[in-house]
């Protein structure tokens, strides 16, 4: 069932987005784009991919950065090259040399996206594939040293993706997915999951909302709800890691929390950025608003098998379609490429080609993007989360839509 009828396509808050000029899905409209559940080989996105990749390599020639993170720095560009050619020895050597400044890391932050653990995780995988035992051991040792800090639930470490435990847990699970035998034990993973749940329960009790909402998290004293800093992202990761949760934790903590979060939806179908008074229906982007909820609902459907989660996700998808062509640009974090990934997630969950069509249209927007359209120029124009590497990652990923994964967010 589509929720289109219940979502407004009116110029609601066009301050933040352009009107979506693309025609929505119909079987006829989709025909030139989709062939047997994949992007057709004659499609513009596929045809122009090589040229786009070439012009990006030209821009990268003179690029240097002292930011080594995945989010805005060199490791994010390294991740893009890893996505392009994960088994090519020359490519892997180049990633290690150009994009992973492992010796420069300062043990500052624990997360995959904004901390040391992104470059360390990618470093572990690349050196594993290159059979470089020395660097591999170095990366695993460094990552392991962080476990003790992160599993301590009484520390003031937040739990979200960019600076908190979810971002660290992602790094461990990402390495375990690519390396065999998996270097991080079930016990280590479970200890991080338990710290997150414990911290969530503690805050819910402190806020006296534990009866209706057993888990709550905060970052900088705000209870954010979106994917980057908030609870929808945290729950999405916990559900991806569900084999480390007990039935009781899933049923008694996660499920009722999702039900509570669903009550916060605006009549437009979007979600607020945080709990509390003065909520405004502003953002529809990966970091805030409906996108994070869409992922949470899709993963909840895969976990609990309840179709209601699909309907809830469809409603998010419609908001993203109408309000997702953002004035902030084409980035993953708060731009059109990040929103395009939502449709790929929907396509993977429902196998309904309507969603693939919508993803292709948003990817086309990224492909045709010109600076005139942009109202904010990114500070880090080559980066994965704010710059060109994000939409480039999308254009590669959409060629294999059933296996596309939002980098640094989906496992
Ligand atoms: Zn953002």
From TrEMBL:
Is-annotated flag, keyword Transmembrane? no
Q: What are the binding positions for Zn(2+) in this chain?
A: 287, 333-334
Q: Name one GO molecular function term.
A: metal ion binding
Query: Could you give a single Gene Ontology term from the biological process aspect?
Result: peptide modification
Record's GO cellular component terms: plasma membrane
Statement: the UniProt record of this protein carries the keyword Repeat: no
Recite the UniProt keywords alphabetically: Metal-binding, Zinc
Which InterPro entries does its entry note? Answer: 6hp_glycosidase-like_sf, LANC-like, LanC-like_prot_euk
Family affiliation? Belongs to the LanC-like protein family.
Protein name per its UniProtKB record = LanC-like protein 2
- Species this protein is from: Dendroctonus ponderosae
């Amino acid at each position: 069932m589509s929720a289109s009828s219940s979502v407004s396509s009116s110029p609601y808050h066009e301050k933040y987005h352009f009107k979506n000029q693309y025609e929505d899905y119909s079987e006829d409209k989709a025909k030139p784009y989709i062939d047997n559940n994949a992007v057709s080989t004659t499609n513009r996105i596929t045809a122009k991919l090589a040229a786009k990749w070439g012009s990006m390599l030209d821009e990268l020639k003179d690029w240097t950065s002292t930011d080594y993170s995945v989010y805005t720095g060199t490791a994010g560009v390294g991740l893009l090259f890893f996505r392009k050619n994960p088994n090519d020895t020359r490519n892997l050597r180049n990633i290690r040399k150009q994009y992973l400044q492992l010796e420069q890391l300062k043990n500052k932050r624990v997360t995959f996206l904004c901390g040391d653990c992104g470059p360390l995780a990618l470093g572990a995988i690349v050196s594993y594939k290159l059979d470089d035992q020395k660097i591999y051991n170095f990366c695993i040792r460094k990552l392991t040293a962080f476990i003790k800090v992160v599993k301590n639930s009484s520390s003031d470490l937040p739990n979200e993706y960019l600076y908190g435990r979810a971002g660290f847990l992602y790094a461990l699970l990402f390495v375990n997915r690519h390396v065999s035998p998996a270097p991080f034990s079930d016990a280590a993973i479970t200890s991080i999951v338990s710290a997150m749940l414990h911290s969530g329960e503690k805050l819910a009790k402190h806020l006296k909302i534990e009866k209706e909402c057993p888990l709550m998290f905060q970052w900088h004293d705000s209870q954010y709800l979106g994917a980057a800093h908030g609870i929808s992202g945290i729950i999405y990761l916990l559900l991806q890691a569900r084999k480390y949760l007990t039935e009781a934790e899933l049923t008694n903590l996660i499920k009722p929390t999702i039900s509570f979060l669903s009550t916060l939806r605006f009549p437009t179908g979007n979600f607020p950025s945080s709990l509390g008074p003065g909520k405004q229906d502003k953002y529809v982007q990966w970091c805030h608003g409906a996108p994070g909820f869409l992922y949470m609902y899709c993963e909840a459907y895969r976990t609990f098998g309840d179709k209601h989660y699909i309907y809830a996700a469809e409603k998010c998808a419609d908001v993203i379609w109408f309000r997702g062509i953002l004035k902030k640009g084409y980035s993953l974090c708060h731009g059109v490429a990040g929103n395009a990934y939502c449709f790929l997630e929907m396509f993977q969950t429902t196998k309904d080609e309507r969603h693939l069509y919508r993803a292709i249209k948003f990817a086309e927007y990224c492909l045709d993007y010109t600076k005139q359209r942009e109202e904010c120029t990114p500070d880090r124009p080559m980066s994965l989360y704010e710059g060109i590497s994000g939409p480039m990652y999308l254009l590669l990923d959409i060629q294999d839509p059933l296996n596309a994964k939002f980098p640094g967010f989906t496992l």
